[in-house]
Design a protein that fits this description.
The complex is a heterodimer of chains A (651) and B (99). Chain A contains 25 helices and three strands. With 651 residues, chain A is mainly alpha-helical. Chain B starts with a helix and ends in a 13-residue tail after the last helix. Classes of the chains: A mainly alpha (651), B mainly alpha (99).
């Protein structure tokens, strides 16, 4: 019998050398999670160390694998067949790992940033009773995320996709005694279900039309799909990406997810898991290349999300929620980039990497501030913290500068490249998408500068205040386990962009997975865009200084505000929109169905029973118990029979 | 002799018995009316036997008498039992077996 694996390995080389142990990448964190979850309290003393060790070991192995792959020539793509997962008649799902530049890039990001955040968590979660369990969940997340990016088919991707969803749910709901954390976890899980449904149906269509779900076979045979099928698959995969990556219209769960501990926000809801949607679209690039309509929708979703993310980010007073909306908007940039097609895939991945550094750094900085401020998250109760937390201030500011695209820091290279690529689209698309992206850059500069002024600069507003539990604020710099990861991430925020973009290093490295990075020239030239974005960002910073830097800020949030601010404080009515469009019609539908069931189906059954019962009740009255009435009916019956006989006889 | 008179008498007796069963309340009287109906039937059986010149109808009349005798024994016992417990021989009083 033909081994199904051999069919797929015709196109892709089998793994040899260092890569033959690539399953260790997944197995190490999975092993850590298993030991910590099954070991119980016995592992309390050393659980966090094991949790860090497994991820760091994975990272070390990933680096070795990376250099091994760089040493190869040609396609640099190989697959490691582990076992036949679902061999059922026509459905033959193989459990294998695909080692190519794209997946290895993600492995380095996930395990690298993951290691730093694991180390940070040792300090951040030091006072938590269940720290061991926290590390177990983090390890579980890393294992699932690695499976997501390393799997060599859509089904393995889906397995990892659900795995990270589970880990995300467990970690958002970490403070389970708080109702808002519990409901945020549920909200994240449910909204992700909506996206997962799209992803699942997309995979079903691929299987129905092509009979396989392995990447190599699907991508080789995209041409066999009709145009409508390709568009349907692209839109369904996009729905999946929207759910996981917090894109419009499923963006509302991500800010609520900030109810989880800060390292979780940094790792899962900023650097890695929420970028899975970008990974999915970049990975499925042969399908997206085949559908210009699908890519246009991707671009629209990205542009809309990046704008609404920015606008809402301006209005929130919660440190982490502002960063969360910033994440939503930055992922909007990435989605926009991958929607641009061959001119943007590599740019999207590059922004994903640099964003992974600076956003994780910004979140860890926020965590450090909150750690020193009795877990206070309201930025209006902060101010002037740079004196008290110099390391946090410097690292956070470097991340901030990287995010707003300060020249020659990471964001400058990655975000401006996306904006330039958006302007390079021909015709109205160039103006619309480029304009939206450039406007987004200005608003990004505004709300991030607002954060900087309210948290670190200005007058200390916390001196006369007490936190909710009645303690006074004594802001202090965090310990080494927390500052070292922040410093390393700040270094990444500063240098990663220049390193990755100089000579198109990243684009060339990724070209076996994503195709060569193409260039096109549309409505605006790259240099013009560069200066335009710099000018707009500077304008954003200036406006923020006018509003928040010049004069002291009130501790209470101003109530008399314009319509725009009020809308932004209400998430631009994203929750209301979801509720009105989906939740309420769903409720109505279920209520109508319950009505039909109660009154219609039950009515029919109960009605016929009641009819029989009622009529028998009436008939029963004939049994009076009076012998003479029985005699009369017998007589009448006899006369009737007799009459009938006579009529038959004589008619 | 004309059999018609016998048959008319039989019909008259049967009707008397039937009306008695329907209108009288005393169980003993009802019982007697039933006997009357049985004997009206006996009379017509014998009459038809005579008309046809056979013995079948007369034998049948004897059978009816035997059955009627047995029925009287059982029926009177039941009436006695009911009278003992309820101090009443009215058929309308023993109406418990109903809806």
């Amino acid at each position: 019998m033909l081994d199904p694996a051999s069919g797929s390995s015709d196109a892709v080389a089998a793994v040899s050398g260092v890569g033959s142990l690539a399953w260790l990448l997944l197995a190490l964190p999975a092993f850590g999670a298993t030991v910590l979850l099954l070991g119980g309290r016995r592992t309390d003393k050393w659980g966090h160390l094991l949790g860090c060790a497994t991820v760091i070991a994975s990272f070390a192995y990933g680096v070795a694998l990376f250099f091994d792959t760089i040493g190869q020539t040609g396609e640099r793509t190989s697959e490691l067949h582990l076992f036949d997962w679902v061999p059922v008649n026509a459905l033959n799902v193989e459990f294998g790992l695909r080692l190519d530049p794209l997946s290895l890039t993600f492995v380095l990001l996930i395990t690298g940033v993951g290691s730093l955040i694991h180390i940070y968590s040792i300090g951040y979660m030091a006072h938590e009773a269940g720290r061991r369990k926290f590390f177990a969940y983090l390890n579980l997340f890393v294992a699932a995320m690695l499976l997501l990016v390393l799997g060599n088919g859509f089904v393995t991707l889906y397995f990892g996709w659900e795995g990270v969803g589970l880990a995300s749910y467990l970690l958002i709901g970490w403070y389970q005694h708080k109702p808002e954390a519990a409901s945020a976890a549920k909200k994240a899980f449910l909204m992700n279900r909506v996206g997962d449904l799209g992803l699942a149906i997309g995979i079903f269509i691929l299987f129905k039309e092509l009979g396989t779900t392995q990447y190599t076979e699907v991508f080789a045979r995209v041409g066999e799909l009709s145009a409508a099928e390709v568009t349907a698959v692209t839109l369904l995969l996009l729905l999946g990406a929207c759910g996981k990556s917090g894109q419009f219209p499923l963006q509302a769960w991500l800010p609520d997810a900030m109810a989880g501990p800060t390292p979780v926000s940094a790792l899962i809801h900023a650097a890695t898991m929420v970028t899975a949607g970008v990974y999915l679209i970049a990975r499925a690039n042969p399908i997206y290349n085949a559908s210009a309509d699908g890519r246009l929708v991707v671009m629209i979703i990205g542009a809309v999300t990046l704008i609404i993310g920015c606008i809402i980010g301006c209005a929130y007073d919660d440190f982490k929620k502002v960063l969360a909306y910033s994440t939503v908007s930055q992922i909007g940039y990435m989605i926009l980039a991958v929607g641009l097609g061959p001119v943007g895939y590599a740019l999207g991945i590059m922004h994903l990497l640099t964003h992974g550094f600076f956003k994780a750094g910004l979140f860890l900085g926020a965590g450090s501030v909150m750690h020193g401020m009795n877990d206070e998250g309201n930025i209006r109760r902060m101010g002037g913290l740079w004196r008290k937390m110099p390391i946090t201030f410097v690292t956070w500011t470097l991340g901030y500068l990287a995010l707003i695209g300060f020249p020659f820091l990471s964001g400058y290279f990655s975000k401006d490249a996306i904006i330039a690529a958006a302007f390079s689209e021909p015709g109205w698309r160039g103006w619309v998408f480029g304009g939206a992206a450039a406007l987004g850059a200005a608003i990004t500069a505004f709300y991030m500068t607002r954060l900087l002024f309210l948290v670190f600069l200005g007058k200390p507003r916390w001196e006369d205040l007490k936190s909710e539990d009645g303690r006074e604020y004594h802001p202090h710099e965090s310990g080494l386990t927390m500052t070292v990861p922040m410093i390393l991430l700040a270094v990444g925020s500063v240098g990663a962009g220049a390193f990755l973009s100089s000579g198109n290093t990243l684009a060339n490295w990724l070209s076996p997975s994503l195709g060569a990075l193409q260039e096109q020239h549309g409505v605006l030239d790259h240099t013009v865009v560069n200066f335009l974005v710099l000018g707009l960002s500077a304008l954003g910073v200036l406006v923020a200084w006018l509003f928040f830097g010049r004069r002291p800020q009130p501790v209470e949030r101003p109530q008399r505000v314009s319509f725009v601010v009020r809308a932004a404080r209400n998430d631009l009515y994203g929750n209301a929109l979801n509720e009105a469009l989906f939740a309420r019609p769903g409720t109505w539908l279920t209520r109508a169905l319950v009505f039909v069931d109660n009154k219609g189906v039950d009515g029919l059954v109960n009605g016929s029973a009641a009819l029989l019962g009622g009529s028998s009740g009436r008939l029963r009255r004939l049994q009076t118990g009076f012998v003479r009435s029985y005699a009369l009916s017998m007589l009448l019956g006899a006369i009737f029979v007799l009459g009938a006989l006579l009529m038959v006889r004589f008619s | 002799m004309t059999p018609t008179y016998y048959l008319l008498l039989s019909a008259l007796l049967f009707s008397l018995g039937a009306v008695g069963v329907l209108v009288r309340r005393n169980a003993i009287v009802v019982f007697m009316c039933i006997e009357l109906m049985l004997n009206a039937v006996n009379l017509s059986l014998v009459t038809f036997a005579r008309i046809n010149g056979g013995l079948g109808g007369q034998v049948m009349a004897f059978f009816v008498m035997v059955v009627a005798a047995a029925e009287v024994v059982v029926g009177l016992t039941i009436i006695m039992a009911i009278f003992k417990t309820r101090r009443s021989a009215s058929v309308d009083d023993s109406n418990l077996l109903k809806y």
